[in-house]
Amino acid sequence: MLRIFDYLFGMFSNDLAIDLGTANTLVYLKGKGIVVREPSVVAVQKMPNGQQKVLKVGVEAKQMLGRTPGSITAIRPMKDGVIADFDITEEMLRYFIHKVHNRKTLVRPRIVICVPSGITQVEKRAVKESAESAGAREVYLIEEPMAAAIGAGLPITEASGNMIVDIGGGTTEVAVISLAGIVYAQSTRMGGDKMDEAIVQYIRKKYNLQIGERMAESIKIDIGEAYPGPDLLVKQVKGRDLVSGIPKTIEVNSDEIREALKEAVNAIVDTVRICLEKTPPELAADIVDRGIFLAGGGAGLRNLDMLLREVTKVPVLIAENPLDCVALGSGMVLDELDLLKRVAVSS
Amino acid sequence: MHNHTVDILIPVWNNPFETRACIAAILEHSPYARLIVVANGSSRETELMLEEFSESLGERALFLLSDRNFGLVPAINSGLARSDSDYVVIVRPNVMVCQGWLDSLLKAAELPCAGLVTPMFYGEGMPQIVKPVKGCTHIETSSLSFSTLLIKGEMRMLIGNFDESLDGGEYCLLDYVLRAGKNGYRTYCSAQPILLCSKNNIFGSMERLQSLRESGKLAIDGRWGIVRHYSVYCGSEARASKLHELFETVLQQCRRGEKFTMLLHWRQYRECVKQGWDGVHTDLVLKRLPLFRAERNMANIHAGLSASHNVVVAVRGVQSVPYPGVTDAPYWKDLFNS
């Protein structure tokens, strides 16, 4: 009986696709596009009885960072691309679903959630149950590289090989896709966050200067590069001197930041190289023809495409909308149920 | 059967669940065979699964791990290079073997001059192999599949391994069959066993696969001559007993990769079937002409054959009997040096 009601009320719901990223969560609403782009942060308060109460989610939670009393902490439930805390994730999902899907109790949406490619069966089931508890009528899980490939416009249903490199905040996932399936995938826990951390450590070591995550990210975006470019870029960096303890400003250049990012970038390049080596020759040949596609926030790292091209001898292209690829791709399948059923992973 | 040494070669690329099931079935139903597992650039998950088997199998199995995926045929060749057994049987992970499968294949390998033996298949991924006629235990063939293939060790020592420069499929196997044939070895399709073959995705763009096929065909044509399809007509009067020499020659040509359709009138057809000519080779097809106005329909029949086989060469089976509708059809003795 409940199923009939679900079906009837489902006709009045708007389907959603959710990209649960380590750094940010994006929500795509069918017919509207990406409507939510908020940090994957949840502010929780520890109650006297030991339980946790969710206070804020997303932007509001991030704003509370560093300004809260001791009993309130900001948690990132996604770590290195995987769900570390399912209860908090469920609360986060509930918040985003209600924010986007403004119809309350009876009407429940169909939801597509993007998950990392190496996710276990137990984790898949947990994500599905979290989403259902958060208010979903039907939950489909699709792997992030698949969603990124769809969002990048790759012909994933054909027999030809497509390679996508999705460089996110927590992980980098490299996948070869053919016939609407991931033929081979390799993942590394190296993403934008670790790059920021590498910059923090480098400046700390070289200049005895402590800088924050946001400053590190800003350096990465403004002057970070994977391969030497024609110009030497410089940036003023504000931090706190570790010796004197007082604020200080220094100047860093792109050569230094390239050095700082070397290990992180090499890890990504190695992952791509290994994936290419393990791909059957008939698919590898297609990839050589079509090129490797970069997606995710990390795709924007200056000259990363050049470095990959140099190492792999394969053309490298950056997807048109790299930051939104995963969300866009998972949103696109909302309109094509047949495709969704083909690419969705079983849980 | 236990007098012979047998290696079972399994080329593996990911699909750990399917591969595990395949290996488990092989171990259960082939207790006296040694395994050679070639992991061809597989994922760590697959390698871990193989390591589990490796620990318990000891010397009963060889595990060859490669970081790179070199392709199916190079992987098979690398496994073959490590085999020195009387027989090697290639089994791909999408095949599920059954009770008695190996004994049946080895029995077929005892057929006269047998060098290669393929079983029958069923299931979603079954290769297109022409099966023996009803009642026959085996038939000679030129169409094989890497899904499951028995290779005689002494033959392999003589003719070598598969040619990696070919398409890795139809033409690579055809080349091997022809090399075997040139050295006096025959290729059989055995009616038993019948193995379950699940779907095996064929990757690669259509253009690339087509290009591979074309280059494979060119290579085969250059190496072995263009493979032709012949339709042979003997007239209505010739008795099957008088056509023995013709059929023997045709069979020899089939072993060289040529294809034949024998156009026979009703009585001839019955007699040829009685003599067993319908079950000697998959490329030797007996076609029964219509009972009435057979000769008048020959043009249509020939056109129908040409439509399905590209180019068909009309051949006279009896010197004095013309091929209806074709003025200069050659006589078979002039065409094939018998």
Describe what you observe in this structure:
The complex is a heterodimer of chains A (347) and B (338). Chain A has 347 residues and is of the alpha+beta class. Chain A has helices at residues 2-10, 59-63, 86-100, 121-133, 144-151, 192-207, 213-223, 254-278, 281-290, 304-312, 325-332, 337-343, and strands at 16-20, 24-29, 33-39, 42-46, 52-57, 72-75, 78-79, 82-83, 110-115, 138-143, 162-167, 172-178, 181-188, 209-210, 234-241, 247-253, 292-295, 316-318. Chain B has 338 residues and is of the alpha/beta class. Chain B has 2 domains: 6-222, Spore Coat Polysaccharide Biosynthesis Protein SpsA, Chain A; 229-335. Helix content of chain B is 36%, strand content 23%. In chain B, the strands form 2 sheets. In chain B, strands 1, 2, 3, 4, 5, 6, 7, 8 and 9 form a 9-stranded mixed beta sheet that branches. In chain B, strands 12-11-10-13 form a 4-stranded parallel beta sheet. Chain B is elongated and about 70 Å long. Chain B starts with 5 loop residues before the first strand and ends with a helix. The chains are: A alpha+beta (347), B alpha/beta (338).
Main traits of this protein?
heterodimer; A: 347 residues; alpha+beta; Nucleotidyltransferase, domain 5; 5-stranded mixed β-sheet; B: 338 residues; alpha/beta; 4-stranded parallel β-sheet; 23% strand
**pLDDT averaged over residues of chain A:** 88
CATH topology of the largest domain in chain B: Spore Coat Polysaccharide Biosynthesis Protein SpsA, Chain A
Which word captures the global form of chain A? flat
Gyration radius of chain A, to the nearest Å? Answer: 21 Å
Oligomer: heterodimer
The N- and C-terminal alpha carbons of chain B lie at a distance of 37 Å
What spatial order of strands do you see in the largest sheet of chain A? 3-2-1-9-10
* Extended strand count of chain B: 13
C-alpha Rg of chain B, in Å? 22 Å
Class inferred from helices and paired strands of chain B: alpha/beta
User: How would a textbook summarize the main sheet of chain B?
Assistant: 9 strands, mixed
Mind telling me the CATH superfamily name of the largest domain in chain A?
A: ATPase, nucleotide binding domain
Number of strands of chain A: 18
Proportion of beta-strand residues of chain B? 15-25%
State the secondary-structure class of chain A: alpha+beta
